[in-house]
Design brief:
binds protoporphyrin IX containing FE, alpha+beta, two-stranded antiparallel sheet
Length: about 375
């Protein structure tokens, strides 16, 4: 079993270095270098999701709402790259044989984002916040996950996802979602109405640093002996968030960058252990009394403007899993994998322009 400090290719700047603005950038660059070789790892198979929908239809809907922004993700388009490591305490080893869950340190590349297809959208406190992570070096041991700051997901099928996107699309005349479309969504997708009631009970925190990021979909952790245990995971913050300066288009990202300049940010990996009968449907929460295993701590210590070689070009496909973690049959997971591949494929072939969040330009 390796730890990051045993990897000869990592420069000294990435190991236990004091955090300065320069080391923030150097550190992220080092991590970027090891992932850049992995860009082709995610396969691109057929275009169909279920019987009636293609992944291109979903990509087209994103673009019809947010416009075409060449070179950027079709969803969660606005973001910033981060890096650090995950220190596993070994508590999850009885559940999963995954290498990243053995006692030790794994390198991490990540990306904070806001939901939606507009890479230049103004930060607002209510915008959905995302965190994508690639834990461990590329290959069969790497674990990728993309999480949001919601307690449950508002939809449980590709149809529901499309219906929700279309219903929330602003009417060109009023600038607001069409009330008739919203009413139709409520009739056709009562699970979305119920999930939104739960979501309302979890108002967003003040920033990225104090957000809990949840995987929401159900996975199976597979032990050395082959026992499969349903798991939902989340990363819970150790810190409060620095106050965002209102009036800045990037207020949430700016606060994150300023906070990372002053020290590391930490989140605990919490594994919620499912029991027989617990739903796979991501609109449905599990009972609150489920056992929780604290599997280790995520430490982020560098931040970098999106660029070649860092998280900009990574596909945080939730089906890139190490041996020891397996997907459930939740159709949202296979839909995500197919649509992320389409988005990644499209943006990879397009010219790039500078991201809205320029780390060196953050002064307040
Ligand atoms: C059917 C449901 C979903 C669809 C169609 C969808 C679609 C997308 C697309 C097209 C991207 C951009 C991918 C890329 O270019 O690399 C994306 C990114 C992302 N999605 Fe989803 N998504 C879905 C569900 C979810 C769920 C359930 C979560 C969280 C639990 C989530 C969290 C994220 C995050 C955090 C990112 C940004 C990751 C990064 O920084 O690259 N998505 N999504």
């Amino acid at each position: 079993m390796w730890t990051v400090n045993q990897m000869p290719s990592l420069p000294e700047s990435w190991r236990n270095a004091p955090i300065s603005r320069r080391s923030l950038v150097l550190g992220a660059g080092a991590i970027g270098a090891f992932l850049a070789v992995d860009l082709g790892a995610v396969s691109y198979a057929n275009n169909w999701i279920g019987n009636r929908i293609t992944r291109q239809e979903i990509i087209d809907i994103f673009q019809s709402i947010s416009g075409a922004h060449r070179g950027f993700r079709r969803n969660h388009a606005k973001g910033v790259a981060v890096a650090g490591y995950f220190d596993s305490n070994g508590e999850a080893m009885k559940l999963s044989r995954a290498a990243v869950l053995r006692v030790g340190r794994s390198p991490v590349m990540g990306r904070f984002s806001l939901s939606g297809g507009n890479p230049f959208v103004y930060d607002t406190p209510g915008a959905g916040r995302g965190l994508g992570l690639a834990i461990g070096f590329p290959g069969q041991r790497q674990w990728r996950t993309a999480m949001v700051n919601l307690p449950v997901f508002p939809v449980n099928s590709p149809d529901g996802f499309i219906a929700q996107l279309l219903a929330s699309k602003p009417d060109p005349v009023t600038g607001k979602p069409d009330p008739a479309a919203m009413a139709r969504l409520a009739v056709d997708h009562p699970e979305t109405v119920a999930a939104m009631e739960i979501i309302k009970q979890y108002p967003p925190t003040s920033g990225f640093a104090d957000s809990t990021f949840r995987g929401l979909n159900t996975f199976y952790f597979v032990s050395e002996s082959g026992t499969r245990t349903p798991i939902r995971w989340s990363f819970t913050p150790h810190q409060n968030a620095l106050t965002a300066q209102k009036g800045s288009a990037n207020m949430l990202f700016d606060a994150l960058v300023r906070q990372l300049r002053t020290g590391q940010l930490r989140w605990d990996l919490q594994l919620v252990v499912g029991e027989p009968g617990d739903p796979v449907d991501p609109t449905l929460p599990w009972p609150a009394d489920r056992k929780v295993v604290n599997a280790g701590v995520l430490v982020l210590d560098s931040v970098q403007t999106e660029m070649l070689g860092n998280a900009r070009d990574v596909n945080f496909d939730p089906l890139v899993l190490p041996d020891g973690i397996e997907p459930s049959d939740d159709p949202i997971l296979s839909t995500r994998s197919a649509v992320y591949a389409a988005s990644h494929r499209a943006r990879s072939g397009e010219p790039k322009s500078p991201s809205a969040v320029q780390v060196d330009g953050v002064t307040r």
